[in-house]
Write a structure and sequence with these properties.
The chain is of the alpha+beta class and 115 residues long. It is built from four helices and six strands.
């Protein structure tokens, strides 16, 4: 499965769990760590966990296994590394604080619908 399809599945899973402000940044041209960053936020801890589980179920069901997950049940930032895509799930406050969109502004913003 290519990285674009992986990103599309992850975005759909996040959307199904009512993730806030889903953003996709294509970083393959500026970094070797991944092709896409996917960034979304949630309202509370339960939603963050549901978003994490939904992404993992969607990608696992497509035969893609997570390489590493950072963050636990009390975390307000969960990072899911699938190799070609990295999914960042934040609380709203942490998303504003870390501002990955600004840090990776040299990447190309892609609308989830364009994947």
């Amino acid at each position: 499965m290519d990285s674009r399809e992986m990103a599309k599945l992850a975005c759909a899973a996040l959307s199904d769990k009512k993730a806030g402000d889903i953003r996709v940044i294509e970083i393959g041209g500026i970094s070797v760590i991944a092709d896409y960053f996917i960034i979304a936020d949630g309202e509370n801890q339960n939603q963050l966990e549901a978003m994490r589980d939904a992404v993992d179920e969607a990608l696992y069901g497509a035969g893609v296994k997570v390489k590493q997950v950072e963050g636990n049940q009390k975390s307000t930032w969960i990072l899911m590394d699938y190799g070609d895509i990295i999914v960042h799930i934040f609380s709203k406050e942490d998303r504003l604080f870390y501002d990955l969109e600004r840090i990776w502004r040299d990447g190309r913003a892609v609308e989830p619908e364009e994947l």
